[in-house]
Structures are given as structure tokens and as C-alpha cells.
Design goal:
single chain, 458 residues, alpha+beta, Cytochrome p450, five-stranded mixed sheet, 17 helices, binds protoporphyrin IX containing FE
């Protein structure tokens, strides 16, 4: 039977740590307070005209109302950049994302994959295989794809389960904790460190540096906030971030050891010659290492954060996975990653003029693929506002499905979210969110960065 759980109905529109009793007494019209049953909305954003070019666009959670308006009224909207640089087209419908994402000859990744403009010099200095197109892309990807294939990743089951249970031992003992700090932020890096063959003790440092890179728009993670301070000096570094210098030093050490014949996790694979006879240079390896540390961490983290947020705010979901006959773990993991949509977009660049939805796109125009919007499009996903843990054949787009760059770490991320669900279901009786959560300041990565919870264990 297909069991579904309706989303929360009560949205409590407060920010900060206001006492519930105060709110309850205030008797504010439209606010329904039931102590111990407070439900915190996944997104508080209701504005249908959020400026998507702004790093503040997701400060109140994903601007789902803006995407819903665009999907309905203007599926190919042009947005000017608020900083005066070149604007971009927005692809927001599920069907359009699937159709265009596979056309790398029309929409190239080889001029940058984020909204910012990049000069050729910047592009060359910072590129990884993610910023290349087939066939060059395919040749490099082939070197590493086996290390992240479903069968290889399945072999990590026990290691992931051990890490999750070690984290849960500490968190459940504490009872109240920030679910992001205690679980979501720790698991992905600890596992990635084991795969890459670097010491687990380096994990915290790598996470900190990875955050400084990919969360370069949030002052909680870097002093070099991309749209607030002058980062010109760092324009040739990944994410225009000085943290990359430290990661480059770390990668240099790995390179020297590999050159001396040492085998380091899966990293030696990427330095093999490709079928085209080319080899990743030291510069390219350093960028690739930064990509892994950044991309391999925060996206899984925000999927786990969204998972725990959902279990806390829709207790029926926890009951569902605790039911003795529940077995749809793979579907549940996919559904949570659809719901989380941690990478809100990736950008492409038009290689030639073309017309789409009546709009004239010019060669060189930036085109932004909003995978997050596709994941909420009722034309592609049945009843997208409902978390359906048994959703059959989930056509979600969180991993850039349909395109040549479909996430390399997809099977690993799915397995980690699945194991978190499984172990929580075994060990937890109740999860409550105890105060409001906060969102990452970024229009690129979408996620809850602090999630205070109280957990009653079995
Ligand atoms: C839920 C977690 C994750 C999400 C939502 C996610 C999302 C994505 C998306 C949307 C892309 C496609 C980019 C594009 O179309 O240009 C991508 C690519 C990539 N991801 Fe992930 N990712 C996740 C986890 C991971 C992990 C755990 C790793 C590393 C172990 C990783 C490494 C990569 C790499 C290397 C690429 C580039 C692949 C290529 O260009 O061929 N990701 N990811």
C-alpha cells in the first residue's frame, strides 16, 4: 500500500527563540500553538518575486513561491544580476530541466557552473572535470566512476553504520543537541576521509575548509564573503576563497606521496592517464581535491539535516519507518534527498543562439538550471509538497539527473541518508525540534545549518 504523510498544516511565523508560552498567550490571529506539537516549516519564504541573483534569496529557506510563479507564468525568465554583472535565464520546469540538461553541446559547463561571470583565465585556473564537456569530461569521469559505483559504495555499508552509531551514541546520551553539528555535518566527511585515504582526524579541519569554499557567501563560514568583501586577489582560486591555499598545501603533500609511489585511497585513480592519453595535472588534481572536499560534504549534510527536520516536524514519518513492515528504505532516501534539494542550481552557458518558450537565447548567455524547482514541479512529481517515503520511480532531479555530470557521489549520498534513517528508526522514540532553525546564506547551496532538537531514545 502506498502510504503518504501530509505535510504540516501549521506554520509558526516567528524567528529567534521566542517562548512558545508568550506566543500562545498573545493569541495572534492565524497562529495555532499546541505546546509539544510545534511544527517548523521547511521554508518560511512566501515572496513570489525573490531576487534569485542575490545570495540572500534563500535566507528564509528556499523561495518556493517564486519558483511556483515562474513555472506557471514565465518558465524562461531573465534575471538581472543585482551586482550589475551579466544576467541569466532560468530553467524551472521539471520537463525543461530534463530536456536541456542532457544537451551539453547546446548548454555547456565549460565556462563556469555557478552564476558568477568567469574570465577565461579564471576558468582555466579553477576548472575541474565538472567544468568540461563530453568527450573530455567522459574520459576523466571514467577514471573515478568505478570508485563511486553502486557496487563499490555498497561495500561501505558497515563503515557508514559504525560512524552513524558512534555519532548517535554521543548525541542520544546528550538528549538535546544541534542535529547538524552532531550528526549531519560529521558523517559525510568522516566517510569521505576513509574513501580518500586521509586520516579521519583531519576530517574536522577539512570540513571547515570545505565550508569556507562552498559556503563562501555565508559570514558564519568565511571572512571572505563573496558579495561583501573584495575577493579579486583570490579570483584564480576555487570559489575565490583563500581557504583553497591551505587545501592546496594539503593536496600537494598527497601528490608528493603519490608521486613517490604511495597508494592513497581512491586518489591515485584520478592521476592515471585517460583513454585519450591525457593526465590530470597537479593544478587540476588540487582543484579536484577541493571539489571533493566541498561537494562531498555539505550536500549530504543538508540532506541529513532535512531528513531529521522532517522526522521532527512530521512525527508520522518516524512512525512510518518504525512500522515492522516498512522496507522502502531506498525510496525513502531518494524522497528525502528530493525534499532537501541541497544544490539548488547549476549554471550552463549557451553555445549558440536558440529559442525556448518564445525567448531568444544568445550564444554566451548564462542559463541556470534550478534542479530544486524541478523537484517541486507537480507536472513532473506527483503531489510534490507531500513527503511520500514510498514514492515509486521517483523522478527527482537533486543529483542533476539526465545530464552527463550527474552526481559522482550519488550512490554514497543515498546510502548515507538511508543508513541515518534506518539507525534513527531503531534507536529513537521521539524527535522534537526545540527552537527555530537557521538557513545557509547562499543561492547555490540550500540547507538548514542549525537544527536544535531533543531526542528521546529507546
Ligand atoms: C545529497 C548529496 C548530493 C547532492 C544533492 C549532489 C548534487 C550534485 C549535482 C546536482 C551535480 C551535477 C552538477 C552539474 O550538473 O553540473 C553533482 C556533481 C558532482 N558531485 Fe554531487 N551531490 C551530492 C553528494 C556528493 C558526494 C557525496 C560527492 C563526493 C563523494 C559528490 C561529488 C560530486 C562530483 C565530483 C560531481 C561532478 C561530477 C561530474 O561533473 O561529472 N557529490 N552533485
Amino acid at each position: 500500500m502506498r502510504a503518504t504523510v501530509r505535510p504540516y498544516v501549521a506554520i509558526i511565523p516567528f524567528s529567534g527563540h521566542i517562548s512558545l508560552a508568550v506566543l500562545a498567550k498573545s493569541g495572534k490571529a492565524g497562529v495555532h500553538i499546541v505546546p509539544h506539537m510545534v511544527q517548523y516549516a521547511f521554508s518560511r519564504s512566501t515572496d513570489p518575486f525573490v531576487d534569485l541573483s542575490s545570495q540572500d534569496a534563500f535566507n528564509e529557506g528556499a523561495p518556493f513561491a517564486t519558483f511556483a510563479r515562474m513555472r506557471r507564468d514565465n518558465p524562461m525568465e531573465w534575471v538581472e544580476m543585482s551586482d550589475g554583472s551579466n544576467g541569466f535565464w532560468n530553467i524551472v520546469r521539471h520537463a525543461d530541466l530534463l530536456e536541456l540538461n542532457r544537451q551539453s553541446d547546446l548548454l555547456s559547463s565549460a565556462s563556469g557552473i555557478r552564476m558568477e561571470d568567469q574570465s577565461q583565465e579564471e576558468y582555466e585556473a579553477r576548472k575541474t572535470f565538472q567544468e568540461t564537456d563530453p568527450p573530455q569530461h567522459r574520459a576523466f569521469r571514467a577514471l573515478v566512476s568505478k570508485a563511486f559505483s553502486p557496487s563499490t559504495v555498497a561495500g561501505y555499508d558497515g563503515q557508514i553504520r559504525n560512524i552513524v552509531n558512534d555519532l548517535l551514541d554521543v548525541a542520544l546520551e546528550a538528549g538535546e543537541f544541534d542535529a547538524v553539528d552532531a550528526i549531519a555535518r560529521r558523517l559525510p566527511m568522516q566517510m569521505l576521509a576513509q574513501i580518500m585515504g586521509v586520516p579521519t582526524e583531519d576530517g574536522d579541519w577539512l570540513v571547515e575548509k570545505g565550508d569556507a569554499l562552498i559556503s563562501n557567501s555565508d559570514p558564519d563560514y568565511t571572512d571572505f564573503v563573496i558579495d561583501q568583501v573584495d575577493t579579486e586577489e583570490y579570483r584564480l582560486l576555487p570559489f575565490r576563497s583563500p581557504a583553497a591555499v591551505e587545501l592546496f598545501d594539503y593536496a600537494n603533500d598527497l601528490l608528493d606521496r603519490m608521486d613517490a609511489g604511495e597508494q592513497i585511497g581512491v586518489l591515485n585513480l584520478v592521476r592515471q592517464p585517460t583513454s585519450h592519453g591525457t593526465q590530470m595535472s597537479r593544478d587540476e588534481f588540487r582543484n579536484f581535491f577541493c571539489l571533493l572536499v566541498a561537494a562531498g560534504n555539505d550536500t549530504t549534510r543538508y540532506s541529513i539535516a532535512a531528513t531529521i527536520h522532517s522526522l521532527a516536524n512530521q512525527p508520522a514519518l518516524l512512525s512510518q519507518i518504525q512500522s515492522p513492515d516498512f522496507s522502502a528504505w531506498d525510496q525513502a532516501s531518494d524522497e528525502m534527498i528530493r525534499w532537501a534539494s541541497p544544490t539548488s542550481h547549476f549554471r550552463r552557458t549557451a553555445t549558440r543562439d536558440f529559442e525556448y518558450h518564445g525567448k531568444q537565447v544568445r550564444a554566451g548567455d548564462k542559463v541556470v538550471m534550478w534542479f530544486l524547482s524541478g523537484n517541486r514541479d507537480e507536472q513532473g512529481i506527483a503531489d510534490p509538497e507531500t513527503i511520500d517515503l514510498t514514492r515509486p520511480r521517483n523522478p527527482f532531479l537533486s543529483f542533476g539527473q539526465g545530464g552527463p555530470h550527474i552526481c559522482l557521489g550519488m550512490w554514497l549520498a543515498k546510502l548515507e541518508v538511508k543508513i541515518v534513517l534506518q539507525e534513527l528508526s531503531k534507536r529513537v522514540r521521539k524527535i522534537e525540534q526545540t527552537a527555530d532553525h537557521s538557513y545557509l546564506r547562499s543561492n547555490f547551496i540550500h540547507g538548514i545549518k542549525h537544527l536544535p532538537v531533543r531526542v528521546v531514545h529507546k
